[in-house]
Specification:
It contains 13 helices and twelve strands.
């Protein structure tokens, strides 16, 4: 009998052996591995969860009118783009969207079987191809950290179902050339999906969306998990090409991918509020600066600030050895870079997702000023 799919170990479960080292220190473990927000969402967002009166009925899979209008208004304010409400859909957190879209597109285009994605990246892009029965083909990164589209094999282009772009990139923090990616996709007839969930935390220049280059052949994916500290509500949205969005909206209805009504109401409130995002930006930038300085001094490695996102990403020569040393000496749990592809095996990712006092505890343990 041929063996079927066996799920690999979940990347972050591999860190369990380091936890006892960190937990043994006074004050316990400081978890800087998974990018789980720790700060409170706005009070009016939480209030909206209990006042929408939408918990009894089935919510629309494509998203309520207020939610999609709020997403449209936010994209207009943030990026200066005008996307019709009909070209916007809700998703049950963007990880779900990333993990399932290859399968849905493969049903639509069965003669294409290749998912292109950044060689150093969020692991769900690769897993989405596996779950769809497709080929996962990593795209090399340029010296600037963006995709080296010229390195894609023409044979892979001919089989490409979709291309994923992630800017700011998780884990590297690099910014990509989104208009060039959009143009490449149109030239080759390959839909480009742009994961922009860290866009609000762009440090080098203004935030951008691929939709600034037009909606034809592209989809932008946004999340409220990071910008509004709402990871537990599982809410995001996708927007872009009219035909692609309509197809995904319709097939997702059949699967029953429904964001709960109260969550949609809360998300609409969050998207209408820009002030709390500015506060969160300041928090993450401060934590990045504090940890970059402290870890550079302690380790002897050059740790630069990212161009975007809330992760430090640096070459530690051996990601697993560095992570174990940091757990033992500073009680901090961080992510070895091979979680994000073979190209990251020497690297470490540090997520600044703990309150200031916990970040300061790590700094004190490092013994640096």
């Amino acid at each position: 009998m041929t063996a079927g799919f066996v799920p690999p170990p979940y990347p972050y479960d591999r860190l369990d052996r380091f936890k006892p080292f960190a937990e043994a220190l006074p004050g316990g473990m400081v978890d800087l591995s998974i990018g789980t927000p720790c700060d409170a969402p706005p009070a009016d967002v939480i209030a909206a969860l209990s006042s929408s009166n939408s918990e009894r009925g089935y919510p629309p899979s494509i998203g309520t009118a207020p939610l999609r209008q709020a997403a449209r208004d936010w994209m207009s304010r943030r990026f200066g783009v005008d996307v019709p409400v009909a070209q916007i859909g809700a998703c049950v957190g963007t990880k779900e969207f990333v993990a399932t879209t290859a399968q849905l597109l493969h049903l639509r285009t069965p003669n294409r079987d290749t998912v292109l994605y950044p060689a150093v990246a969020y692991p769900t892009y690769e897993m989405s191809a596996t779950l769809a029965g497709c080929r996962a083909v990593p795209v090399p990164l340029s010296s600037a950290g963006g995709l080296d589209l010229s390195a894609i094999d023409p044979a892979d282009i001919a089989r490409a179902l979709m291309l994923w772009v992630n800017s700011p990139n998780n884990p590297t923090g690099a910014l990509d050339d989104l208009p060039t990616a959009a143009g490449w996709g149109r030239t080759h007839g390959v839909p480009v999906f742009s994961d922009e969930c860290y866009a609000e935390f762009t440090w080098d220049g203004a935030a951008h969306t691929i939709l600034e280059a037009g909606t034809e052949g592209v989809i932008a994916v946004h999340s409220l998990s990071k910008r509004s500290n709402l990871a537990g509500l599982r809410i995001g949205f996708y927007a872009g090409d009219a035909e692609l969005v309509t197809y995904l909206q319709e097939v997702r209805k059949h699967v029953g991918m429904l964001v709960p009504g109260p969550v949609q109401a809360a998300a609409a409130v969050a998207l209408a509020d820009d002030a709390h995002v500015l506060v969160q930006r300041d928090r993450y930038l401060r934590r990045l600066e504090v940890l970059a300085t402290a870890l550079s001094s302690w380790s002897g490695h050059e740790i630069r600030m990212p161009a975007g996102g809330f992760y430090l990403w640096f070459d530690a020569e051996d990601g697993w050895a560095f992570s174990e040393r940091l757990a033992r000496q500073a009680g901090a749990l961080v992510s070895p870079g091979d979680f994000y592809g073979e190209g990251g095996s020497n690297n470490v990712r540090v997520a600044v997702v703990q309150p200031d006092d916990r970040i300061e505890l790590v700094v004190q343990r490092l013994g640096v000023n």
